[in-house]
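Section 5: illustrative case.
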């Protein structure tokens, strides 16, 4: 048998430890435990400025999820797609995505009978646009149709309330094949059943967790600027509005990860930092470049394992941390790009996304921040797109009907072979990654070319303009 490398042996030992810990009891004597995980995402340019219009999603939720604008489900066609993540696509005020927060309930060890609880969450600066099971939403300024969308500002306060949630029992959620939904189910937690919440609800709904997500016009906790000449990243804090007079917020783990289109990965862990109300001081710096020898497809599992360890240390059960990472499998770990991951300070989560329960509980909230940075490859693609003649979108009408074609028209990235040749300019556009629309529009704002303008017009990539 071939000898294992030191890295391989470490990964095996970590995997065995996680497997053993997964079967540890979730509840404690006399204490209800509520565990939450989620992700907040931003796209920042080389100055550290957040780029708007990032409410794009290539992993749609199952159709049974509730959306505050149900007409969006009738949308069809590869372009233009008027709504994503519950808000108009390329919305100029959306600078933050709140992705897949889920709440798990672990009753006390001696509490065997089902019980009820009310759950209320607020979102400062954002709308909570999608959720399951049914809840009572409040999203000021969020219209019910595409012509009624008002602006979203840092003062916007979105809210969701689940009344009379029954925790316990054997209820299961609706059938689905979507990984983004199945991964969070693979956790040892009590089922939740929610009775009708509004006059429009006709029956109870059940699941393994409470789910919600949304969009916001507010900054993530960190700002990353990029010195292109020195290939140096500088990290500053930008969460003074939620710190007040408290102690500095500690970010216990950070990772810089670069994933190339060939699937190879390079990454490095950064030292913990403390964020204060000082937004000018550089808290950490690191090179934005990796040596060629640092890239390997095997490194993906290594970064997953170190993140798993940090998530558990921050309060999640091992199977919850595994579910979180599995939810990211394609969107974060297979999608090319340069990104900074970090554990969000608890002060930020509790200040921006306050959670209230109607009964006492031990609450562990673990949020991962993800800042998408514009890589050298993406800059090269943008320059190439800006000088490539725009194609005629008529080629889309020649795509034969197939499962791949339907996935393409749904806006998914992993659609496979379409049966027709994709034009050069559109392939460049696809290669830009998940936030391609925001990148193209940002490029147009600073470096317009006739080819770029024609491409945007041909494929309907204009930014949404609120009424």
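Designed sequence:
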């Amino acid at each position: 048998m071939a000898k294992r490398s030191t890295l391989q042996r470490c990964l095996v030992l970590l995997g065995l430890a996680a497997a053993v810990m997964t079967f540890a009891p979730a509840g404690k004597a006399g204490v209800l435990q509520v565990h939450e995980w989620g992700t907040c995402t931003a796209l920042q340019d080389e100055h550290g400025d957040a780029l708007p219009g990032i409410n794009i999603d290539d992993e749609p939720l199952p159709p049974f999820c509730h959306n505050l604008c149900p007409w969006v489900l009738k949308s069809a066609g590869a372009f233009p797609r008027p709504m994503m993540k519950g808000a108009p696509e390329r919305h100029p005020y959306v600078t933050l995505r709140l992705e897949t927060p889920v709440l798990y309930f672990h009753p006390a060890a001696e509490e065997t009978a089902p019980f009820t609880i009310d759950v209320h969450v607020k979102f400062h600066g954002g709308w909570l646009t999608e959720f399951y099971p049914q809840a009572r939403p409040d999203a000021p300024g969020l219209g019910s149709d595409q012509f009624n969308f008002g602006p979203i500002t840092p003062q916007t306060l979105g809210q969701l309330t689940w009344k009379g949630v029954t925790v316990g029992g054997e209820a299961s959620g609706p059938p689905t094949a979507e990984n983004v939904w199945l991964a969070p189910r693979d956790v040892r937690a009590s089922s939740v059943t929610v009775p009708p919440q509004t006059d429009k609800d006709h029956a109870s709904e059940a699941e393994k967790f409470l789910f919600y997500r949304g969009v916001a016009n507010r900054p993530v906790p960190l700002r990353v600027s990029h010195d292109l000449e020195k290939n140096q990243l500088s990290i500053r804090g930008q969460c003074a509005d939620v710190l007040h007079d408290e102690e500095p917020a500690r970010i216990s783990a950070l990772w810089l990860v670069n994933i190339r289109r060939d699937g190879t990965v390079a990454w490095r862990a950064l030292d913990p930092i403390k964020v204060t109300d000082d937004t000018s001081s550089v808290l950490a710096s690191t090179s934005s470049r990796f040596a060629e020898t640092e890239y390997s497809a095997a490194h993906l599992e290594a970064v997953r394992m170190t993140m798993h360890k940090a998530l558990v240390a921050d309060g999640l059960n091992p199977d919850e941390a595994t579910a979180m990472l599995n939810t990211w499998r394609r969107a974060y770990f297979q999608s090319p790009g340069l990104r900074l991951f970090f554990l969000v300070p608890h002060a930020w989560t509790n200040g921006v996304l306050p959670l209230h329960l109607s009964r006492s509980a031990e609450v562990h909230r673990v949020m991962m921040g993800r800042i998408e940075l514009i890589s050298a490859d993406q800059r090269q693609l943008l320059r190439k797109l800006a000088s490539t003649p725009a194609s005629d979108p008529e080629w889309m009408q020649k795509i034969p009907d197939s499962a791949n074609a339907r996935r393409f028209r749904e806006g998914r990235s992993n659609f496979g072979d379409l049966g027709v040749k994709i034009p050069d300019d559109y392939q460049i556009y696809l290669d830009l990654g998940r936030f391609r629309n925001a990148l193209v529009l940002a490029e147009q704002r600073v470096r317009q070319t006739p080819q770029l303008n024609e491409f945007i017009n041909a494929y309907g990539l204009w930014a949404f303009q609120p009424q």
